[in-house]
Amino acid sequence: MKQPRTGFLTLFEALHYCESGWYLKNPSYPVWILGSETHLTVLASPDLSLVSKDVYDQGSTATVHQAEVEFSRLSTDQDTNSGFIQCAKLGELLISLNIPFTDQSLADALKQLDPENFGVILEEPFLQYFFPGEMANRRLAVQNFQIVHYNGLEKSNLDNQVRYQIGDAHLLDPTEELLEKEPVDQNPIHRCLRTKWPTIRIKWKTGRTPSLN
């Protein structure tokens, strides 16, 4: 599947009717179509760090996401997503990801990834070993960013004037989430956005939450 330029998030996922896949939640540009029961609106952000180009041409090295997909494909028990592969499959995995290796480098990797000689490789150590930069970037993911929402229906805007709604978004870290005292906003647009950013909190410039309908 090819990474789209524009993503798609839907309130129906928050209601457990369906789920948008990884590519729809992670387009190559920070623009998402938002779906409600009756209408489609648009969310965008000027912050390009919210997305990453998932380029994977033949002959190029894969991204972390593609490594996760291939690792899962070779996992011992795909039905339970066991999170490990047999050591004997490491070479096959590296070939599928276009990661070059020699017999010696493969042996060195196995020593690092299976130091106890259990015969299996866990997913997290594999990703840390072969994709240290991207894994570090994940830990330093953006926490604050601006968002812009557009609803083209006059009746859904204040005073029937169609306008962009600008908000400041913040992603809570686990500690902040535990200490948060205010109830989580259950407005449809916030529920929709939490399908991608589970801990997102938004302050809208106008003080009025935009409508998805």
From TrEMBL:
Provide this UniProt record's keywords sorted from A to Z.
Hydrolase, Protease, Thiol protease, Ubl conjugation pathway
Record's Pfam families?
MINDY-3_4_CD
GO MF assignments: cysteine-type deubiquitinase activity; K48-linked deubiquitinase activity
- What EC number(s) is this enzyme filed under? 3.4.19.12
Per the record, the GO terms for biological process are:
protein K48-linked deubiquitination; proteolysis
Q: Where does the secretion signal sit in this chain?
A: none
Native species: Paragonimus heterotremus
- Please state what the protein is called: Ubiquitin carboxyl-terminal hydrolase MINDY
Q: Where is the Deubiquitinating enzyme MINDY-3/4 conserved domain?
A: 4-53
Q: Which InterPro entries match?
A: EF-hand-dom_pair, MINDY-3/4_CD, MINY3/4
Explain the purpose of this protein. Answer: Hydrolase that can remove 'Lys-48'-linked conjugated ubiquitin from proteins.
- Which reaction(s) does its UniProt entry say it catalyses? Thiol-dependent hydrolysis of ester, thioester, amide, peptide and isopeptide bonds formed by the C-terminal Gly of ubiquitin (a 76-residue protein attached to proteins as an intracellular targeting signal)
Q: State the similarity comment.
A: Belongs to the MINDY deubiquitinase family. FAM188 subfamily.
